[in-house]
Structures are given as C-alpha cells and as structure tokens.
Amino acid sequence: MTRVIALAMDIAKPERPVEVSRLTLDAGFSTHWTGWDAKTHRLVVTGSAGRLFLVKLDESTGVVTVDSAFHDANGKPGFDFANREWPHGWKGTGQPHGVVFSR
What we know:
Elements: E1 2-10, E2 18-27, E3 31-37, E4 42-47, E5 51-57, E6 64-66, E7 79-80, E8 84-85, E9 91-92
Antiparallel strand pairs: 1-2, 3-4, 4-5, 5-6, 5-7, 8-9
C-alpha cells in the first residue's frame, strides 16, 4: 500500500479548502513525525519504514517536493536507518522517532 502525505491546503475559503500539493513517498511508508525548519523551508519526515526524508515547501505556491539533494550513499532520497554502523560503535537498524531542527 502506498502512503500519501497531503501537505499543502489552501484554506483562504475555510468552507471550501483546496488541495494545493500532494506528495507520495515510498510504498509502505507511513508517516510518524514531522518537524518544520523555517530557515530552509523544509520538513523532516520520519515514519514506519526506518527512513527519514527532507521535504521542501515552496511557501509562495504551496508545492511540496522531496529534497533529492538529501540522500545517502545509494542515491535514494532520504536517509536509510537499516543495517548501519553507527558512530558510537553499535551496528544495527535504527528506528527514527521524533525530529526537530535546531537554530
């Protein structure tokens, strides 16, 4: 099953909201947490698939896109937490949970 994140709605007329942009992530990905960075206009998105994505929001148009410049060694957008050697010496699969941007 493909999960979809609808991130942008025009609510200028609250009685009739309009979808502005819809973003489809990996099949089987179910969103868990998002964090907004006002400085870079990006959302960080975690979910059920052990992967983290950065999503760009064009605030003037409402269009949302995956930030393809943010990818790991395999070139696939996002960051894969599966079977990694972590800096503190542990090897295994991590599960991202909450996320925040820091100033």
